[in-house]
Amino acid sequence: MTFSHSHSGPNALAPSSRTNSRAENERNGNYDDVDDNRKLTFNIVEDSGPGRRSEDEEALLEKDPAEHHIPEPPSQTGIVWVSFWIMVNTLATIGIVFTNKAIFSDLSLKLAQLTFAAFHFFMTWLLLYTLSRPRFAYFVPRRTAIRDVIPLSIAMSLNVILPNLSLAFSSITFYQVARILLTPTVAIMDFLLYHTTLPRNAIVALVPACVGVGVVSYYDSLPTDDVNVKTTSSVGVTFAFSGIFASSLYTVWIKSYQRKLQISSMQLLLNQAPVSAFLLLYVIPFVDTFPTWSQVPLSRWLMILMSGIFASLINLSQFFIIGQTSPVSSTVVGHLKTCLIVALGWATSGRSVGDKSIIGVFVAVGGIISSSIQIKALTEQCGSCLRKFRRSGIQAFGGNAERASPFSAANWNQQRFETPNTPSSTSEDAVPPLTYGRQPSDTESDDGYNQPTPRRKPGGYDSRIEQILYENPELPILITDAGKSVESGGKFIVYTIRTGDLEVRRRYSEFASLRDALTKLHPTLIIPPIPEKHTMADYAANPTNAKQDQQIIDLRKRMLAVFLNRCRRMDQVREDGILWRFLDPNVSWNEVLHSHPLSSIPKSILKAPPLDTANPTPAHAYLPVPSSSAKLKNTANPSPAPTFDGSSTNASQVLRRFPTDARDLSEHDLDPYFIAFESSIRELENALMGPMEKVNRRTLSHLSALATDLSDLGAKFNAFALSEPSASLAAAIERVGQAADSSYIATEELSSSLGANFAEPMRENAQFAGVVRNVLRYRVLKRVQQEMTNDDLVKKKALLEQLESSEAEARRIEQYLSNKTSSHHREGSGEDTASIDSDFPPTHGDMSSAPSARVGAPERSIASPTHRKVVSSNSITNKIFGPIRHAIQGVADVDPERTRRDTIGKTRENIEQLEQAQIAIAQDVRVASASVLQDLKRFQNEKEEDLKRYMLAYAKSQIEWAKKSKETWEEARAEIEKIDET
Predict the structure, then answer these.
(1) CA-CA distance, 603 to 581, in Å (whole number)?
(2) Between residues 249 and 6, which one has the greater pLDDT?
(3) Domain count, the chain
(4) String of b and e for 88-112 (b: at least 16 CB within 10 Å)?
């Protein structure tokens, strides 16, 4: 299985997309090995044509590291291992062609092509799914929307079915030789769609290849009386040329889709294969003619299984030989497989050696091999020029020699078994990674660079970009370009980020979401700021083109690069995985934002641990959330804040600014240090955004106006020199005009340098003040949250105590009433006994006298439901007021004792939760204070280094400007002194 080059789009379609097409043909049962000849096809954009620039068509996928350095020679064991897998790949390719031919020779299976293709798609998906699992991790899977890959899946199905039908209705020799036409067909499509051409020598060499295919087509389709001779029917010829057109279209499309979806060939095929299989399932019942499956012999079932096994072996061998073979060896292997299939096909066709079609075979194969040799020779010549060009250190066209060079890999692509993008290999036999950020010296040879052995991360890497960031800590992250996005129809500005040899394009809104995500993940860290959004004043001043303002775009381009480099120097940010996913071209940023850890962060980060906001504990759910304007209680007078004087050094100020040992200090003792730092950072912000900003603006405005005046002055002096008849005086005047022009250029450079290296960083430092205040505010809110938790716990305990006291009083009263009722029952029981023992019934006339226990009995029975007047269920009043009465009874305290007991239970539960929250918030406050204090120390050191660098940049800019002006005007003075006074 081959991997895609990073050079996508039309300018890279010729070599790399055809490589992917060939690899995917092999995965799916279309094994035309002559496609190896296409892998050296050039894609040169004519200067006079409307071809696209290579920098515009740069893919979002990372580049093949082999394009940037030459790997070390493999060990003897590695050579044997690679040779073994090359042999497996060759035998499996030949085996699947002849196996498929044998399967299609069965009339009952010949017309079940869609079912056979669906089977191969399933086998392809199964293998890719297995290889993408973390246990193997040959590449990182990535999902795409089904609707996005449906057109390509249809083309993929035709790319497999039509060639297989050609194989079923033609001889193996014709099938393989006809596939040679893929090279000229793709070249024609590239020319028609993207105005790209092949080298003239390669075009001339392709002519006999096409003629040879025509000869084979004519003689192989002629009828013969010999039943042992296998011929090609007209249906087979039709399917062959239709399959060539479908394969060529699929070849041209595939790289366009890779660029559109920002996905590698393996990831794309993993999404395509199941979609193609399901689409075929809807068509199979209407198209395929099925045999009686019980009558299919066992040998045919074994052949079908072998075909799937051969496809899996081809895919598997591709993984093991990726990046281990040179372009020359892979070309030779491709030609060898083509010749072997043609030779074996001829041997099994029953034709004699004197058959006239053999002439066409030799002409076609010879033509395609000759074309490959011509291209390879020119490629090697250009590759040598490229190495010399790189080694010379030329940084033309914006400092990107590779992109600007006509010999760059974007225009002169070489086909190879491509190196996977993600994940990276950490095996001992892997190609050593490139050390970035270093230009080769003149003493180094063309064969490679003397690079130090990079460090490796224990446990391996999850991505190629992670490997680059870990093994090259000093490698800068660059934003090489900013412009309108082709994918979005030019609606948005995207920024091209280069990390080593990988590139990805991101919008400003994605940078903003990255910073927002890092702020939520690390609330105790000072995450660097990004340039501000457009203000309403910007839209009012330029309502139509505010977003396309080039000055703002250039400013964002510089400051976003600073933001990324500051983030990658922070250990916590670099290790959480969000940053390298943002830089990985194989990762969808939208998926990152909606997956763990970002999707697991609570809505309020105050309900999560400070150092692990994506994994809150159950106790954090019970924490109260203070308002953003909440303040700490002034329970006691805080300790006096540390003071600073101007006579002390920076080191001593830092020692007094931060406590020497914060572990023994309480939060109350730490408050003055944080308050003092916030006060100092506010003073810095006021100084930078107040007087300093105004002076900087006036200075830059003055320099721009001075440069304009110098330009006009130089033009006037030059014009005046033309009208002066005296030669010496005219020369002096012209020299003064040239000096004014040079001063104009130097002043423009000074203005630009001061703006980029001094004014912009000062504004960034002012933005840092707001970031620091937010971090300190987070710690204060955590303290407030702790106070609120403690207060809530105290209130709940007081409430519980009151409820328990009320419950005890109620029980005491109930016990008293219960005892009194029991005594009344005992008295009434004695009277009843006396009545029963009497000879006469008791007198009832005394019932209205003093109440007794006996009197109470009827009262209780009257209250019973039996003797109570019940409202009829059919009553209209009951229907109307029944629900209202029920609702009122639910709200009213109909059973105060039960309500009190429920409240006691809930209060006890709340107290338990608050006690857990109290423990959690106490730990959070300690951790947050320690983390904030540690990051403030880091920030303070970096701030001092930054200010020192800005001052040096300011001084150097002034010195350079003064030197250039002095040299220029000294030359002008020397010329003035030469004026002939006569």
Answers:
(1) 23
(2) 249
(3) 3
(4) bbbbbbbbbbbbbbebbebeebbbb
Give 539 or 727, the one with higher predicted confidence.
727
Last residue within a domain, chosen from 374, 404, 434: 404
Q: Of 388, 404, 420, which marks where a domain is finished?
A: 404
Alpha-carbon separation of residue 959 from 105, 421, 750, 801 (angstroms)? 84, 46, 10, 78
Using only C-alpha atoms, the chain has a radius of gyration, in whole angstroms, of 42
How far apart, in whole angstroms, are the C-alpha atoms of residue 93 and residue 682?
71
Say how far apart CA 759 and CA 559 lie, in whole Å: 12
Quick one: tokens of 941? 């050191």
Q: Is the pLDDT of residue 786 over 80?
A: yes
| Cα 766 to Cα 529: distance, rounded to the nearest angstrom | 10
179-192 pLDDT, tens digit each: 777 777 777 777 77
Q: Residues 516-574: pLDDT tens digits?
A: 999 999 999 999 999 887 655 555 556 556 566 778 888 889 999 999 999 999 989 98
Q: Residues 288, 375: one domain?
A: yes
Of 778, 784, 779, nearest to 633 (Cα)?
A: 784
Chain centroid to CA 224: 61
Determine the structural domain holding residue 353 and report its residue range. 10-404
- Of the candidates 179, 183, 186, 184, the residue with the CA atom closest to the CA atom of residue 216: 179
Closest to 37 (Cα-Cα) out of 381, 378, 327, 369: 369
Q: Classify residue 73 by burial, with Cβ atoms within 10 Å: 0-12, 13-18, 19+.
A: exposed
The Cα 4–Cα 268 span in angstroms is: 10
The answer to whether the CB of 12 falls within 8 A of the CB of 5 is yes
DSSP structural state of residue 666: -
- Cα–Cα distances in angstroms (integers) from residue 972 to residues 739, 805, 968, 980, in the given order: 6, 102, 6, 15
Q: Which two tokens stand for residue 705?
A: 């106006």
Of 409, 404, 383, 504, residue with least CA distance to 15: 409
Q: Is the pTM of this model over 0.85?
A: no
Q: Are 221 and 347 contained in the same domain? A: yes
Range of lowest pLDDT (393-397, 646-650, 885-889): 393-397
Same-domain status, 730 and 581: no
Rounded-to-integer distance, Cα 713 and Cα 360, Å? 76
First to last CA, the chain: 85
pLDDT tier, 931 (very low <50, low <70, confident <90, very high otherwise): very high
Quick check: helix, strand or coil at residue 502? strand
Asked whether residue 890 is domain-assigned, the answer is no
Q: So what's the pLDDT on residue 607?
A: 92
Query: Whole-angstrom Cα distance, residue 868 to residue 875?
Result: 17
Structure tokens of 688?
């930078």
